[in-house]
Give the backbone structure.
Amino acid sequence: MIDLIYLTVLLPLLGFLFNGLAGPKIKNEKVIGIVGSGVIGLSFIVVVGAFFETLALPVEQRLNIVTLFQWISVGGLNISFSYQVDQLSLVMSLIVIGVGFLIHVYSIGYMHGDKSFWRFFTYLNLFIFAMMNLVLADNFLVLFLGWEGVGLCSYLLIGFWYDRKFEKSTTSAAGLKAFVVNRIGDFGFLLGMFLIYSTFGTLVFTDVFSRAVSFAVPEHIFVFIAIFLFIGATGKSAQIPLLVWLPDAMAGPTPVSALIHAATMVTAGVYMVARCSILYASAPAAMMVVAVIGIFTAFFAATIGLVQNDIKKVLAYSTVSQLGYMFLALGAGAFSAGIFHVMTHAFFKALLFLGAGSVIHSMHEQQDIRHYGGLKKYMPITYGTFLVAAVAISGIPPLSGFFSKDEILWYSFTNLGFVFWLIGLITALMTAFYMFRLYFMTFEGKEKFDHHKLHPHESPKMMTVPLIVLAVLSAIGGFIGIPEIFSGEHGNLFHTWLAPIFKTAEMKLMQFGGHSHFEELLLMIISVVAALSAILYARFVYLKKPEVAEKTSSRFKAAYNILLNKYFLDEAYDATIVNPIVKGSEKILWKIADNKIIDGLINYLARLIDIISGFIKRIQTGVAQSYALVMVIGIVIALFWIILSYA
Amino acid sequence: MTLEVILFAIFSTICAVSAVLMITRPSPVISALFLVLNFCSLAGLYLTLNAQFIAVAQVIVYAGAIMVFFLFVIMLLNPETERKFFEHKAKLRVFIIVIVALVLIQIIYVIFLSKPSQTITSEASRSIETGTVENIGREMFTNYVLPFEAAGYLLLAATIGALVLAKKKFE
Amino acid sequence: MQIPIEYYLILSAFMFSVGIVGVLTRRNAIIVFMCIELMLNSANLTLITFSSYLGDVGGQLFVFFVMAVAAAEAAVGLAIIIAIYRNKLTVNIDQINILKW
């Protein structure tokens, strides 16, 4: 099955072509949906097969390259389309294909009746194709191909409902924003790739990483490479300063938000940093940058999420915050912990988004949580799964979120220090709070909508079955990553599985143990207690005494305003970067450089010819005598010639 | 001071002076009359060069036919008299005179450069026989009869052309 | 022949240049034609001179043909002037400049 891994890329491509070309003509939604989801289902079987096959191999043989064809062969650059099947790419493939499959099935129900049903599945399949290229690539260039491809699909899917308005602008503008901001990050990524090629002479992962150890490269080169690649990651994974596109990406349909902006595309940055762990481990300064940006983003986004009133916006900022956690883990040197959180986050965040989609669907596209309330009795399955996901993300044991988040907090405490842990803890507190604020305002409490106009109902089976599957995974998914204090030596199965990938990096960082099990247990208890108290406080405010929320927001009006307007970040970017560029282009580049200089030059040349010909044409006077005069002058010259040549 | 020299002096002076006067007179009729004078003095010069037939032909054809033709046209068209020579476009006329003076100087220089006196042979004394009507007739109608006939055709074509061009339009 | 040949040739050159001045300066088309006849006569003089000093009759025969051609040319040229006069009512060369730029 390992050799057939290319099928996981090929099948979605075939689905894309089929739905794209024949889709408009096929009026039957079932066929499109079955083809679209079926190819992903088949890919899932291939990935699972490859996984078990790799599991059966001894540890040293778990890295396999499957080459398809030679892509570029120019000078010293030899890139082939090959896929690297190892522990890390298998984990990511399972997440992408597994969660992707569930979301495809869900979409059949969610997009039912949409006039562009076929287009949705076309784009979704294209996305899986690009994402698999990204995850399975064995060299930077194929990874970049997938990187750009998912950016394109994100743009296409955000602007899927191209005729709809979104906030003060259109959905297409939101898609364009995502694409442009991503592009800025990609510029950094390209610089990193160029630097890698010029330093190591190759772009193939295995070669680059082995040469990173064996070549004598000055540390600042590693720092530059790492920072450039990380700039790409901030774009793709919506970290500070390029996070502004993710909240606006909520303009797209909810399955899109679930798949792309929660589970898979935004984690591409995390995957890339984890894959290049050796490069980062060789540049501790860059790792500190990663950690600082990670924790700062996590805190920043969580504060904004506290006051948002759109259900999808809360989840979007929550995603940004959780991604910050993942980068915090990577920055602390706990690479497998970061990937672990990618996996658990994929489960519960996709579940949260799909559940939100269920609610939005039944409330007729209403997204403001102030108009929800008491939906518990109308949508039991949605309510139950949403609650599971909320508990998971708040980090309550024994659900998956607890294990992954706690591992991150622990490693940040041991490797980065008390301050990082404290900020992480406060952010976890805020996460629990705003998550349950969302839950209570949506599913519990008084109904704040007109019961006679809206009849909320449960979603069809096509939509609820994926919810249930994801809920189960969110609940038990954490058990493969139980920390060693509970499970003994090598008991953390996830960590053991990924250890060979990060071995070299961890050796470079020379991280020692040195901390006692007691400290770990203590910190764990503190974080659980904090989460529980946050949940209870949320219950108090939003269920029992809603007036407290009103009074607090009016007492701290200024702070509330800042948070509600997301720190005016978009406006700041507009004023400092966007508008100067637009105005500068208009006034200088267009009016002066293009109009005056370039056009002026061409016009000047034409005028010059005009002037010269204006002089020359006067020779033709029409009077015969002037022609005769010229002839006589010619005679004079000819006679001179003759005389001179004769004499 | 032989007769030859005196005659040459008189005829060449009249020739040159009448030429200059011809181009400077404002009235066309006066110019035409000066040209007639020029042609007659040229005929005299031809006689000093022993070209009897050509001298007579000059008077008959040029002074007698062509100039009369010119005078007829002047009479028909009655052009207005021009202004004085140096009044209109003075600068241009000065420039033209300078250029043509240059041409004259160059031609004279070439004349002296080529030293024609040294190529004159004793055959110059034969010129008395070469200019007679008998001699010219003999040469013309034996060696040069083709150009002679062609000249006839040329005159025919010119006649027809002049007729067509100057004719009044058909009503 | 006592008169040096150069004298005749210089006279001929003088007449020729006078003719050029006349062609370039006069505005009346008929007078321009007369100056052209003057130039032709100066060439005739040169031919006769050489014919006389070299004893060759060919020069005088050539002059004969030049006269014929000059006559034909004068006829046709003046006919053209008459035709132009009929259209433009003037023989002033400065006013016949239709081929101007």
